[in-house]
Amino acid sequence: MANKRVLVTGGAGFIGSHLCEYLLNQGEEVLCLDNFFTGSKENVRHLMGHPRFELIRHDVVEPILLEVDQIYNLACPASPVHYQYNPIKTTKTSVLGAINMLGLAKRVKATILQASTSEVYGDPLVHPQGEDYWGHVNPRGIRSCYDEGKRCAETLFFDYHRQHGLDIKVVRIFNTYGPRMHPQDGRVVSNFIMQSLTGQDITVYGDGRQTRSFCYIDDLVTGLDRMMNHSGDFTGPVNLGNLGEFTILELAEKVIAMTGSKSGIVFKPLPQDDPMQRRPDITLAKERLNWAPAVPLDEGLRKTIAYFRQLPGIC
Ligand code: NAD
Ligand code: UDP
């Protein structure tokens, strides 16, 4: 069979760059589209010059005409620091980006996958979070631009599916980490590793008892591929995440121990609406996609720390 032509929006970001690499290794033709807001050419430099790789500078809030078989819609800043920098643009990216990519998928009859998020559950009152839970989201807080933007994108995906018969796939991604996270990204794993390696105090927000479940990037990419290429009519939404649940304080202590750092821990105010607990129920992913993560936190952190250690300016 001929290679598929696959569009990855947000392809020069953390997850997108790993996905582009994976797709090239699978023999696909990859169009990586990005406006370089939080991603960079550096993330895909090793793919440039590959005969099946193409990099397009474009903003998903504007329409684009391309001929593709599959679309992974990943374009959107994911770190609270970055998505709160220009919150109106964040909502536009999710909503107008979804409309433009769905329009493209409709025109060329492509299968389209939306990178949704565990944030659609907000600060959840149900634990662990299954796909049937509708969530507990503040519609007018500082996280709303991201959470509600992603929720509206899901709405658009399911309406395009019902109204126009589009082949849609919706995955809800839980906290994912690994090499090529931006060192100044502001997310907890990159912050703690950078602080440990540079001898700064580790900044724990709140009392550190809030929990997250951390999924290693390679596991996530496999899950994205399984969902996109699932032959049945399974639209999702489906959770993709690791079952291991850790408090933020446990993560801080783990990173300090694994880096052999002398950093101390300082406590900073908890940001508004910061979810107190998060762990996916992945029964559906196991049943429908035969997918479950394989990389435990310690192993993933080891690889991620090794990546951060070799960055310029880190010793
Ligand atoms: P990232 O910030 O590294 O990547 C996002 C990419 O999208 C960047 O390359 C950025 O430049 C690009 N982008 C942003 N706005 C754009 C626009 N208007 N037009 C074109 N490109 C644009 O973040 P990531 O962690 O790689 O996240 C990728 C996707 O996965 C996002 O949609 C995010 O919401 C979703 N997600 C990530 C996580 C996680 O833990 N990493 C969790 C849930 C969902
Ligand atoms: N966090 C922290 N210190 C940091 C960065 C984040 O304690 O330097 C906390 C944050 O308050 C949240 C958790 O770690 O409770 C995960 O934050 P992140 O921004 O990585 O992801 P999200 O909140 O979107 O899940």
Automatic annotation (TrEMBL):
Keyword Oxidoreductase listed: no
Subcellular compartments: Cytoplasm; Golgi apparatus, Golgi stack membrane
InterPro entries named among the record's database cross-references: NAD(P)-bd_dom, NAD(P)-bd_dom_sf, UXS-like
BP GO terms, sorted: D-xylose metabolic process; UDP-D-xylose biosynthetic process
Pfam family, one: GDP_Man_Dehyd
GO MF, any single term: UDP-glucuronate decarboxylase activity
Listed pathway(s): Nucleotide-sugar biosynthesis; UDP-alpha-D-xylose biosynthesis; UDP-alpha-D-xylose from UDP-alpha-D-glucuronate: step 1/1
Domain NAD(P)-binding: 7-304
Membrane topology reported for the UniProt record: Single-pass type II membrane protein
Keyword Ion transport attributed: no
Gene3D superfamilies membership: NAD(P)-binding Rossmann-like Domain
Keyword terms, alphabetized: Cytoplasm, Decarboxylase, Golgi apparatus, Lyase, Membrane, NAD, Signal-anchor, Transmembrane, Transmembrane helix
Cofactor: NAD(+)
Documented EC number(s): 4.1.1.35
Principal cellular location given in the protein's record: cytoplasm
Recorded GO CC terms: cytoplasm
PANTHER family: UDP-GLUCURONIC ACID DECARBOXYLASE 1, UDP-GLUCURONIC ACID DECARBOXYLASE-RELATED
Membership in a protein family: Belongs to the NAD(P)-dependent epimerase/dehydratase family. UDP-glucuronic acid decarboxylase subfamily.
Name the record gives this protein: UDP-glucuronate decarboxylase
Organism expressing this protein natively: Desulforamulus profundi
